[in-house]
Amino acid sequence: MLVIYLNFSIMLFLFSIFMLLMMMKFLLLKMKIFIEINFFMLNTLNFSMMLYFDYKTFMFMMVVMLISSMIIIYSIEYMMMDIFKIRFIYLLFMFIISMLLMICGQNLLLLLLGWDGLGLISYCLVIYYNNWSSYNAGMLTILTNRLGDIGLLISIGIFSILGDWNFLMLMINNNKILFFMLVLSGITKSAQIPFSSWLPKAMAAPTPISALVHSSTLVTAGVYLFYRLSNMMNFNSVYLIFISLLTMFFSGMVASFEFDLKKIIALSTLSQLGLMMFSLFIGLKSYMFFHLVIHAMFKSLLFMCAGLLLHSMFNNQDIRYLGVMNYNYLFTLVMFNISNLALCGFPFLSGFYSKDLILELSNLNMLNYLILLMFYMSIFLTIMYSFRLIYYMIMNYMKFFSMMTCFDNMLMNLSMLIIFFFSIIGGSLYSWMIYSSLNMIYLSMNMKMLFNMMIFMNMFFMLLFLLKLNFNTFNYMKFYMFMNSLWFMNYFSNLLIKNVLIYGMNIFKLMEKGWIEYLSIKFIYLYLLNFMKLEKIVLNIIIKIMIIYLWLILIYMY
């Protein structure tokens, strides 16, 4: 079993190095490659598979393979006591293949193949632990993502009119229905409001899956789709900007009152997805991709560090039981806090180089002041829940010490070390390599230092808030229930899915068990049955008549 895990990990790591070399070659030579494989042509409809490669494609594939290889090494220890290790590694490998198809695909058929593969395998991984909680979370996940798949299927139908499913056909087809369906696909996969409730529920999956699937790959599929379509479609819409800002604000607010460690990290992922969507919708698409790549690194590291702590605490996820973790998990806590600071954009860590650029350029973008106010409030909430998490990790009192196995696992730490390296210097490397010739951004000193001032002011306010807040008051409990239900979005999603399932059951009874049966097989069966009954009656009458005739003949003869 160990050999299989190591072979997969080494293979993916070598592929990630190859992708890094190809990325550097394509970047230096400014190369772009289209590969089209034609299968057949039906009248005017061309069935083909088109692949597109540039340096950003190779960069994203390199990030996916690097994180996947480290996750597999991490899983050797984390999944040691699991009885379905082979199933786990094969599901993980199939997920990686689906993700690579989605990254490289340039037409809707290939995109649908990777897109549906991501959704189906994600469902299998969410229900991996085979309990009712996982089943409910998996059902919510797959049914919400099915809405996006419906949008993609309708888009394929609209594209069929043009005779090709290539993305380039969008340049000659200004169809509002097509635009709406593609936007629906993207926002459901990337868990934007009102489809946000499935992402925190998907934390029922094992932590290695959360580190790969629900932080850096699956949830960024919608953002990546919008990035690829941004050259052919105009996403500069005030409604889309409002959706992304509301997602940022809502997830930051809920994360500031959440006590489940994995859900806090999931909500932070939701907040960063809102930031990526916002930067894309205001025209900063290259900076959005920069943040997407950097975010994948430090967010997967954040999940891996949290998984090690939860693994040592016998799967207890309540942060109120944590505290003074620096005494027993020094190396893990250093990596956790560094990735947490990178998340909130602490100066000169990897997240700073992408977030600070987006903040500065949003000031130069002539946006409405209400949009900017909501944007800065969302950034403030990001810093708030990040320092709240650091407080509970270091300054809180330990309440679960007798149940803990206090040690740093060397194999897990080894897998986290490479991602930790990129979480520190990845932003500066990317910035110097890609954006070395940027124009100077002119801002006043106050605006330039605003983000740094927000970080340090938030440290003080968050500490004051945590020390003074009374968690036992009734008013707080009502407010906490509102936050814990994701602004009642959980009830809305459950009600929606319940109604859809009830509607499907009624359709099944009326159509499958009703009209379709009576008009198809059951109709033929009943027709033949009645015909045979009629035939039996006719035969009985004929036999009786024949007997009467026979008796009459016998009487006449004698």
Short recap of the structure:
With 558 residues, this protein is mainly α. It folds into 3 domains: 234 residues, no CATH class; 238 residues, no CATH class; 58 residues. It contains 21 helices and 2 strands.
Radius of gyration: 30 Å
Low-confidence stretches: none
Order of helices and strands: HEEHHHHHHHHHHHHHHHHHHHH
> Which percent range fits the helix content?
over 70%
Quickly count the domains.
3
Output the keywords.
558 residues, mainly alpha, two-stranded antiparallel sheet, 21 helices, ND/Mrp_TM, mitochondrion inner membrane, membrane, NADH dehydrogenase activity, ubiquinone
Task: Summarize the structure in words.
The protein is mainly alpha-helical and 558 residues long. The chain folds into three domains: 234 residues, no CATH class; 238 residues, no CATH class; 58 residues. It is 73% helix and 3% strand. The protein is built from 21 helices and two strands. Strands 1-2 form a two-stranded antiparallel ribbon. A hairpin with a 2-residue loop joins strand 1 and strand 2. The chain is elongated and about 130 Å long. It starts with a helix and ends with a helix.
